[in-house]
Design goal:
This protein has 14 helices and 4 strands. By secondary structure, it is mainly α. Helix 3 runs antiparallel to helix 4, helix 3 packs antiparallel against helix 9 and helix 3 crosses helix 10. The radius of gyration is 23 Å and the shape is globular.
Length: 415
C-alpha cells in the first residue's frame, strides 16, 4: 500500500523522500525491520492471549530429556509468523505483482489449514487433529492454483539473451563498471523450464518428459508441471512440519533457506546479474525479495520467543505454512530442483520417518517383531534419544543448514 501511495505521490507531487520506496533494496530493508518489530512486540501479546485461553501443547511422554517440562507451553504461535509476514508485505510490496499475490495467497491458504489442525487438537482436544486427507487436499489445491497460474497468467514469463534479430528487443544498461552495454532479449515466453544444478546447460524443461510426437504435447507438459508443483508443495510442507520438534529448529533452518531464496529471486529478476551468472532472467520476480525479507524478519522475531527454552511453539499454523511458501517461492523463481539440497534438513527428517516406518513394518512381517534403524524418528529425536542436549542439536542443524545454503549458491557456478 505504501509502495503504491509513494509511487502516486512521487509522480504527481514530487514529495521528497517518496522516491526511496521505488527501490527494491529499501523496501526489503523496511520489510525485515517491520516484521522483526511486529514479531517481537505483538508476539508477546499473542503469547499472553494463548496463555489466558489455555491453548497449550499436549505432550506425549516419549522418554526424551526435558520433554515433559514443555507441557502447557502455548502453541499456535505460527499466528505471530503469519502476522509478521503479511503486514510488511501488504505495506511495502507491489500488490499488483503476480508473484507477490501468489505468495500472499499461499501464506493465507496454508496458514488456515494449519490453524484448523491446531484448533482441533488444542482447543477441541482431539489429538489427531485435522484428518491427513484434508491436509493433502489443501496442499494439492494450492499446488493446482500455483501451477495453473504459472501456466495461464501472461505476466509470468522468462526471457533469454539472443542474437540480434527483428524479433529481439535491444536493452541498454550500465555494467558493473558503469559502462553502457547492450544485449538483445527474446520476446517474453511461457516456459516450463527450471534450473537444474551441476549441469553445463543448467536448465531442465518439463516438456522433455513428453514425447514430441504427441499433438497436445504443450498442454501435457504444463499438466506435468502442475503435478510437479503439487508434489513439491506437499513434500516440503510436510518436511517442515516434521522438522518442527525442537525449540528454534524449524524457525532457524527456515530463516536460512529463505535468505537464499530471496537472494536467488533478486538475481533472477535482475538482467545484469542473471546474464552474469547465466541463469534464467525472470522479469519482475525480484519483487519477491520484499516477501523474503518480511519472512526472514518474521522468523527471527518468532525465534525471540521460540529459542530454547521456548515460550511458544509455532504448531501446524506455522510449520505447514512455512514449508508450503518455501516450495511456492522456489517454484516461482524456477529453482525447485535445488530444494533437495537447500532443504536438505527437511528432506532428511522426512526420509528418516519414511525409512523408520517402512523398516519397522518389513521386519515385523518377516521376523514377527518390528525393528528400528533410528533410535527414534524424525531424525532430531534420534540424536535427542542418544543423549545430546536439545540446544546443541538445534545449533548443529543450523550449521548444517548454513553449509547446504552455501552449496546451493555455488551450484550456480559449478557446472
Amino acid at each position: 500500500m505504501i509502495y503504491s501511495l509513494s509511487k502516486y505521490l512521487s509522480a504527481h507531487f514530487d514529495i521528497p523522500g517518496t522516491g526511496m520506496f521505488q527501490y527494491l533494496s529499501f523496501r526489503a530493508g523496511m520489510a525485515i525491520i517491520f516484521a522483526l518489530i511486529i514479531g517481537m512486540i505483538f508476539g508477546k501479546r499473542i503469547i499472553r492471549l494463548l496463555q489466558r485461553r489455555q491453548i497449550g501443547e499436549e505432550i506425549r511422554n516419549l522418554g526424551l530429556e526435558g520433554q515433559m517440562q514443555k507441557k502447557g507451553t502455548p502453541t499456535m504461535g505460527g499466528l505471530i509468523i503469519l502476522l509478521a509476514i503479511l503486514v510488511p508485505i501488504l505495506l511495502f510490496g507491489d500488490l499488483s505483482n503476480v508473484y507477490v499475490i501468489l505468495m500472499i495467497v499461499s501464506t493465507v491458504w496454508l496458514g488456515i489449514i494449519g490453524f484448523i489442525d491446531d484448533y482441533i487438537k488444542v482447543v477441541r482436544k482431539k489429538k489427531d487433529g485435522l484428518s491427513g486427507r484434508f491436509k493433502i487436499v489443501g496442499q494439492v489445491g494450492l499446488g493446482i492454483i500455483v501451477g495453473m497460474t504459472m501456466w495461464m497468467n501472461n505476466d509470468i514469463v522468462v526471457r533469454t539473451e539472443t542474437e540480434r534479430s527483428p524479433q529481439a528487443q535491444a536493452v541498454v544498461f550500465d555494467d558493473f563498471y558503469g559502462n553502457p552495454e547492450q544485449v538483445y532479449l527474446s520476446a517474453p515466453e511461457k516456459s516450463t523450464q527450471t534450473t537444474i544444478p551441476f549441469f553445463k546447460d543448467n536448465e531442465f524443461d518439463y516438456a522433455m518428459l513428453v514425447p514430441d510426437s504427441w499433438d497436445a504435447g504443450r498442454v501435457v507438459s504444463w499438466l506435468v508441471y502442475v503435478l510437479a508443483a503439487i508434489f513439491i508443495i506437499t513434500a516440503v510442507s510436510n518436511g517442515a512440519n516434521l522438522t518442527d520438534g525442537l525449540d528454534g529448529l524449524a524457525a532457524g533452518v527456515s530463516a536460512i533457506i529463505v535468505v537464499v531464496l530471496g537472494a536467488l529471486a533478486y538475481l533472477s529478476g535482475n538482467l545484469i546479474y542473471a546474464g552474469y551468472l547465466d541463469i534464467m532472467y525472470i522479469p519482475t520476480s525480484g519483487e519477491l525479495l520484499v516477501y523474503a525479507a518480511a519472512m526472514v524478519g518474521a522468523l527471527l522475531g518468532f525465534l525471540w520467543y521460540n529459542g530454547y527454552p521456548a515460550q511458544v511453539f509455532m504448531g501446524d499454523t506455522g510449520s505447514l505454512a512455512i514449508g508450503g511458501v518455501i516450495a511456492v517461492f522456489a517454484l516461482l523463481i524456477r529453482k525447485e530442483l535445488l530444494l533437495p539440497i537447500l532443504c536438505g534438513i527437511f528432506f532428511a527428517e522426512s526420509c528418516s520417518v519414511l525409512i523408520q516406518v517402512s523398516y519397522f513394518k518389513y521386519t515385523k512381517k518377516k521376523y514377527g517383531e518390528g525393528r528400528r534403524i533410528f533410535r527414534m524418528s524424525p531424525l532430531h529425536h534420534h540424536y535427542q534419544k542418544g543423549g545430546y542436549p536439545e540446544s546443541k542439536i538445534v545449533l548443529r542443524f543450523w550449521i548444517v543448514q548454513l553449509l547446504l545454503a552455501a552449496i546451493t549458491l555455488i551450484t550456480l557456478k559449478i557446472r
